[in-house]
Design a protein that fits this description.
heterodimer, A: about 270 residues, alpha/beta, Rossmann fold, nine-stranded mixed beta sheet, two-stranded antiparallel sheet, 7 helices, B: about 90 residues, mainly alpha, 3 helices, about 70% helix, about 0% strand
């Protein structure tokens, strides 16, 4: 009989509720931020992360003990967790903040995730954190890296391919970088941030959404975790980019050259 | 009764299509209205072969719609976050 692996993998997938990708963004009248009275959904890169966790389990079978989704957000963020559960996560953790509270910053989010990981110690800890490379609302792209730094774990960002070896507690990650692709061999525990080409997320079918309603969501507050999410950055003003001034059509090349000279772009 | 399992499948298909139809990107295209009309048109079918054919057409439309949604999202994300390495100050590729 084969000996069972020394430890089974626990995967944590932090997800974020953002303004839906297809929505037109408008600045709110107070010029303090974006109009959030629109449709929200899970950050597309986080959908890719949840999908990847589910695929890792499909490949490794029962070497993956659990896939947990976590979010830090207002009460409505629970819907995002339900989506993660419908795609295939087993359980979820909701770190709930008041609806009126400002959006948490990457440092605060990373600290909260760290606290959640600490709490998971009794249940076997966390071996792999997979999250989106950036959120489409703030485009910060920092949370994964900060988390890896806080936890002193390896990190592989902008992943376009992940191959996990549960026995060796290693992962081979292919990263998308400016020059092309880079392959890293990382020791677990590991933080991975997902890039667009990692996979194509599945659409949650109605039966899996129904099943997801029965999966547990643990509710916590930042106080429970001992984390302070007060923002350290003050947003002074948010405005739309200046409206583009209309261009003019020219009749021929000579007119074009004359106009360029007028504009001082071409030496007379 | 032999029709019961089919009825269950058809109802599940209808619910799934209805849910998908809510996210249809073009608001002027009444997806759910048209879908309902198509189901109602076939409500009195009795020949199991015809029923199966209509059901398969429904499945096909469901898969096409899912593909539409995924591609639309992928294309949008690729446009926004695709060639992130190239900035306007970079030298043009030689």
């Amino acid at each position: 009989m084969r000996p069972s692996p020394a430890r089974l993998l626990n995967i944590l997938v932090p997800v974020k509720r953002c303004v839906d990708y297809a929505m037109k963004i408008r600045v709110n009248p107070q010029q303090t931020g974006v109009d959030t009275n629109v449709k929200h959904s899970m950050n597309p890169f986080d959908e890719i992360a949840v999908e990847e966790a589910v695929r890792i389990r499909e490949r490794l079978g029962d070497k993956v003990k659990s896939i947990k989704a976590v979010t830090i957000g207002p009460s409505k963020s629970a819907e995002t967790l339900r989506t993660a559960l419908a795609i295939g996560a087993d359980a979820a953790i909701h770190v709930e903040i008041p609806d009126s509270a400002p959006s948490p910053e990457p440092l605060g989010v990373a600290k909260a995730i760290r606290a959640v990981i600490e709490r998971q110690k009794e249940q076997g800890g966390v071996d792999l954190v997979i999250m989106g490379k950036q959120a489409i609302d703030d485009d910060a792209g920092q949370t994964g890296q900060i988390l890896a730094g806080l936890m002193d774990w390896s990190q592989a960002t902008f992943a376009s391919k992940i191959v996990v070896d549960a026995e060796k507690k290693e992962a081979n990650v292919t990263r998308e970088i400016d020059g092309g692709l880079e392959e890293l061999k990382c020791r677990l525990p590991l933080v991975v941030t997902t890039d667009l080409r990692l996979n194509e997320p599945r659409y949650a079918t109605l039966p899996s959404i129904m099943k997801a309603k029965k999966k547990p969501i643990e509710k916590l507050t930042p106080a429970d975790l001992g984390v302070d999410l007060t923002p350290r950055i003050e947003t002074i003003k948010v405005t739309e980019p200046p409206k583009r001034v209309g261009g003019t059509k020219v009749a021929n090349v000579d007119e074009l050259v004359a106009k360029l000279k007028e504009a001082g772009v071409v030496p007379t | 009764m032999a029709q019961n399992p089919m009825r269950h499948r058809v109802l599940a298909l209808y619910k799934e299509l209805h849910r998908l139809g809510r996210d249809y990107p073009d608001p002027s295209y009444d997806f759910n209205g048209r879908m309902r009309k198509m189901f109602e048109k076939n409500r009195n079918l009795t020949d199991p072969e015809q029923i199966e054919k209509a059901y398969n057409l429904g499945q096909y439309i469901k898969n096409e719609t899912l593909a539409l949604y995924s591609l639309r999202k992928y294309r949008h994300l690729k446009r926004m976050y695709g060639d992130s390495s190239r900035s306007s100050t970079d030298d043009p590729p030689s």
